[in-house]
Design a protein that fits this description.
This protein is of the alpha/beta class. 35% of the residues lie in helices and 23% in strands.
């Protein structure tokens, strides 16, 4: 794809450990990539749906997975 975007799929982007993770990823990506956040809550179906969509839209996907067997 090569569009300069990396997606982060995770639950509850406003919780403490996740917020620190987002800041660290943004720092490491620097100016070369834009970070796209997808908050999937605690819904494994939404997580799977977002992954299917994002695979065609971004250069890379980082996950903080829900660890649900169906995904």
């Amino acid at each position: 794809v090569k569009n300069g975007m990396v997606a982060l799929v995770m639950e509850h982007t406003n919780d403490f450990p996740q917020a620190a993770l987002v800041r660290g990823i943004q720092s490491e990506l620097g100016e070369n990539y834009n970070l796209v956040l997808r908050d999937v809550g605690e819904d494994p179906h939404r997580e799977a749906e977002q992954l299917r969509k994002l695979v065609e839209q971004v250069d890379g996907i980082l996950m903080y997975p829900l660890s649900h067997e169906s995904n």
